[in-house]
Amino acid sequence: MLDRSRTPPPGAETTLAELRKALTSTRSLSVALAAPLSAEDMTVQATPDASPTKWHLGHTTWFFETFILQNYVKNYQLFDDQFNFCFNSYYESFGARQPRSSRGVLSRPSSDRVFAYRAHIDAKLDDLLANIGPESSSIAELVTLGINHEQQHQELLLTDILSLFAANPLRPAYQPRLDAPHHPASADLRFVDFAGGIFDIGAARDTFSWDNETPRHQALVHDFQLADRLVTNREWLEFMADGGYRTPALWLSDGWTLVNAEGWIAPLYWEQCQGEWYAMSLDGLHPIELDAPVCHVSYFEADAFTRWAGKRLPTEFEWEIASAATPSSGNTVGSKYLRPMACSKDAHAGLQQMFGDCWQWTQSAYLPYPGYRSPPGALGEYNGKFMVSQHVLRGASCVTPARHSRATYRNFFYPHQRWQFTGLRLARDL
Question: Does domain 191-429 have CATH number 3.90.1580.10?
């Protein structure tokens, strides 16, 4: 998760040496992310949505063993034949598995056993790439897929650690708090105009992309405006003070039901201490930073805020069109803050925070693009079967790995979920 701004995207590696280097870097980073944690930290699961760190480390390793080593290493022997049950996520074709909501009861295998598993698989992968044969193209594609898959779990690993530490009454910190760079008070919100038309949407096939980013197709988009930065904590406090969580007319029906059932009065991880609002992040519990982007809000909350503000969420196509000329860099995990940061007050900066800080809810349902077909085999279970009842998010967050964001990337979550680093940007019609 080093700063990706000066490195090519995954899939741009042109030699096996570069691919081996990318693989080693990615695999080493997962271990480094787990380094601040105790064995107990790595085992516990705070919520059914989250997974233990130990499980993420094991699952990403199982992915390489299952999809590459078993298929391309002659007479390959499994490291442990029980690991398919422990570390399979949702691949029905590979049989029974530990339910997601109960991964925290897997006190065995131990953390040491999982790290031994990683070291064993890393050595086997390196040996395979060092002696690659005629099937090099197929193996390279799968290794690239595995790298990107592990990067997704690196982000989830940090997201899930926050959910665990936020549930701990001691409010432990994953890392010491790094001071934010000094910026003047957050700039007044400005809107940037974009002309409508027929646009090419989706990923080209010359670099790596997930299957849900394809096929590339045309979409009609009308004239629109997009806010030049994300909605801030200061603005969210105004929404709260104006009765945002108490006004049913602002909410979708399912959202209003959830607000009342769960007693929501603020974003997730916010709590009041002596009359002041604090927020839990990976550096512990601190007073909220007023000009930082609001984070850990659900789609329902984001939608309610836009109604209160007299705006709307962008569609995913609008977001992709607007971001096309924006470098896919920002406050991601390489910056090491691991929390959303205020943007600069630069009147000429144009769109800011398109990548990094928070994933951005769109009003678009997560659906297949025209002509989409799931890939054959077990890998076809990766994205396609989740294309229902979820919404698309775009951009990246403060814990997104290096080199793992692009204009066409389609993240997706259920509208009630808010443990991920999710925020919002306003849009409106021209």
Answer: yes
Q: Is 293 exposed, middle or buried (0-12, 13-18, 19+ CB in 10 A)?
A: buried
Res 346: pLDDT: 67
Helix 53-64 to helix 16-34 angle (10° resolution) is 160
Structural element, H or E, at residue 287: strand 284-287
pLDDT value, residue 3: 30
DSSP character string of 180-235: PPP-PSPPPP-EEEE--EEEEES--SSS---GGG-S-EEEEE--EEEESSPPBHHH
CA distance 209 to 229: 26
Report the distance separating Cα 317 and Cα 216, nearest Å: 12
Pairing of strands 359-365, 422-423: parallel
What DSSP assignment string belongs to 7-64?
A: SPPTT---SHHHHHHHHHHHHHHHHHHHTTS-TTTTT---SSS---HHHHHHHHHHHH
Residues 6 or more apart whose Cβ sits within 8 Å of residue 127: none
Could you tell me which residues come within 8 angstroms of residue 162 by beta carbon, excluding any fewer than 6 positions away? 174, 269, 280, 281, 282, 419
| Cβ neighbours of residue 50 closer than 8 Å, sequence gap 6 or more | 159, 160, 163, 164, 419
Q: What is the token pair recorded at 220?
A: 């009609």
Give the span between the Cα atoms of 18 and 54, in whole angstroms. 28
Tokens of 118: 């990683």
Token pair of 82 as six digits: 């029980």
Q: What is the pLDDT of residue 10?
A: 47
Residue 328 pLDDT: 87
pLDDT at site 8: 38
Per-10-residue mean pLDDT of the chain, 430 residues long, equals 33 73 96 97 96 98 96 95 95 91 96 98 95 80 95 98 97 94 72 97 89 96 97 98 98 98 98 96 97 97 98 98 90 95 77 96 97 85 88 98 92 97 96
pTM of the model: 0.93
Q: Residue ranges per domain, the chain?
A: 16-167, 191-429
In order of 36, 131, 158, the CA distances from 176 in angstroms are: 11, 43, 15
Distance from C-alpha of 367 to C-alpha of 239, rounded to nearest angstrom: 31
Residues 6+ apart with CB under 8 A from 353: 229, 230, 293, 330, 331, 343, 395, 425
Cα angle for residues 191, 193, 198 (degrees, 5° grid): 140
